[in-house]
Structures are given as structure tokens and as C-alpha cells.
Write a structure and sequence with these properties.
Blueprint: E1 21-32, E2 35-46, E3 50-54, H1 61-68, E4 76-81, E5 84-86, H2 90-94, E6 97-101, H3 112-122, H4 128-138, H5 154-166, E7 172-176, H6 184-201, E8 204-208, H7 212-218, E9 221-226, E10 229-234, H8 236-242, H9 248-265
Parallel strand pairs: 3-8, 3-9, 6-7, 7-8
Antiparallel strand pairs: 1-2, 1-4, 4-5, 9-10
Length: about 270
């Protein structure tokens, strides 16, 4: 007796879960001595998204970053981080934020794991040692756990600083020039570790950088600012195409030339 064929099952269609904004900024404005450094910037970063905030010197990038971190207060506009409004709920919002920069120093008289455990406790983690070990493994430098701070290269120090900023599992990780002056191997470890972090933890990543090659490798989206305004927002290839350039470096140089010409004309 022949077996009856298996019934054909219709595929189950699932409604995709909409991405939640971890960071939402609307209409940011900031003036210094009658100069409008930021002029109505909007920015959104969703969970798990890797976004670069780019622009030449004087474009308003640093001022925007400082407002997003609650360091300075915008003259107009709104900022929400995981639903918390700045500046009113800054303390609660910053509990969900990690920040690292290549220029921040590390203590030289502590071992790497001691330094990470210390900061883990400052973050309120009851037992930070496992979190430190996991983070070191994620970024591929578990072998440096017992190294002293003064034994690390500048690139390794940058990497440990990034790891420190991830210990409390922040919803938003902000990195200022994370791969500046790094050799290719350390830059790759940074990139791979950040990609794993965002994929595994759903961490939203906001990066500022002048290294356009690394940005193209790391980020899903790039946001270019110029003259205090957002002038492009999309994938690296979309933005390059919009400006008729081959890559992000070409876009960056084009915007820098335009700003320099405007300054000389004023």
C-alpha cells in the first residue's frame, strides 16, 4: 500500500517586529556667540543598528555628540534615549549609555581584568568578573587579562577602553574615533567585537570617525552633517552615489571643500 503524500503546509507569515528607537533626536539647535553650530538636526538610531555620524571639522558633529551625551543642553529640540528625555532624565538615560574614545587614558598600575572589574562595580554589576571575561573574549584579547596597563600598546588601550564601556550592557554605545591610529589587526578586533555586540545584545552603536574606510566596513548607515545640518542619511553606497563620489572619503572631501570655500567667502 503506497503512503499518502505529506500535506502541503502553507508558510507561516510573521509580521516583522518594528525596530525600536534607542536614540531619537529631533530639531536640535545650538548657538555659540550668534553662530549656529547645529541647525535643526534629526537623528535616530535603532536597536542593533550601527550608525556613523560624520562631517568635516566645524560641521557641528562634536556639538551634536555632546548634546546627545547630555554634556551640553540644546537651545531647541528634543533628545530621547530609551524613552528618557534629556536633560530632565539624564541620569536614568546615561545608565543605558556606554562611551569610549581613543584619547581617554587607562590606569597604568592596574591589570586589565582588575581595571574592568573596578569599573564593573562602579556600574553597579554585583559580580563583574564574568562580564569582564566575556567582553575580553568577544573582542579577542582574553590573553591580555593579566597584563598591566603600562604594558599595553596604544591600540590595545583603546580596545580595553571600548570593552570597559560595554560591561554594563548599554542599550546605546557611543564611540568617538574608536579606530584612530590603530594597526590593522587591532582595528579588525574592534570591528569584529562591535559587530558581535550589536548582533548578540541588540546594542545600538553611534560612531564618530575620520577613518572613512573603517566606517564603510563597520556601519550599516552613515549620517553626514555639514553647516550644522544633516545633508545625507543612508548606506555608504547610497550616500556616495547621491554626491556623485566613489566612496565616503570622496564625500567627506567634497563637504570639507565646500565648508572651506564658504568660510573664505564670509
Amino acid at each position: 500500500m503506497s503512503e499518502s503524500p505529506e500535506p502541503v503546509r502553507e508558510p507561516v507569515l510573521q509580521t516583522p517586529v518594528p525596530l525600536a528607537p534607542v536614540l531619537q533626536a529631533r530639531g536640535l539647535v545650538k548657538e555659540y556667540k550668534r553662530v549656529r553650530a547645529v541647525d535643526g538636526i534629526d537623528l535616530r538610531v535603532d536597536a542593533g543598528e550601527r550608525v556613523a555620524l560624520l562631517g568635516p571639522n566645524g560641521a557641528g558633529k562634536t556639538t551634536t555628540l555632546l548634546m546627545l551625551l547630555g554634556v551640553i543642553t540644546p537651545d531647541a529640540g528634543e533628545i530621547e534615549i530609551v524613552g528618557k528625555h534629556l536633560p530632565h532624565d539624564r541620569s536614568e538615560a546615561m545608565e543605558q549609555v556606554g562611551f569610549a574614545a581613543g584619547y581617554l587614558p587607562l590606569p597604568e598600575r592596574l591589570k586589565v581584568d582588575e581595571f574592568l572589574v573596578l569599573f564593573g562595580r562602579l556600574y553597579g554589576i554585583p559580580d563583574p568578573a564574568p562580564a569582564a571575561a566575556l567582553a575580553l573574549e568577544r573582542f579577542g584579547i582574553a590573553d591580555l587579562a593579566r597584563a598591566m596597563g603600562n604594558e599595553l600598546s596604544s591600540g590595545q588601550r583603546t580596545l580595553v577602553g571600548i570593552i570597559k564601556a560595554t560591561l554594563h550592557r548599554p542599550r546605546l554605545l557611543v564611540l568617538d574615533e574608536p579606530t584612530a591610529s590603530l594597526d590593522p589587526d587591532v582595528a579588525r578586533r574592534v570591528r569584529n567585537g562591535l559587530e558581535r555586540l550589536c548582533a548578540e545584545e541588540g546594542t545600538a552603536l553611534l560612531v564618530t570617525s575620520h577613518n572613512m574606510v573603517e566606517v564603510e566596513r563597520l556601519c550599516d548607515r552613515v549620517v553626514f552633517v555639514s553647516g550644522g545640518r544633516v545633508v545625507a542619511d543612508g548606506t555608504a553606497s547610497e550616500v556616495a552615489t547621491r554626491f556623485g563620489r566613489d566612496d565616503l572619503e570622496g564625500v567627506f572631501l567634497h563637504l570639507a571643500d565646500a565648508e572651506n570655500a564658504e568660510e573664505q567667502a564670509s
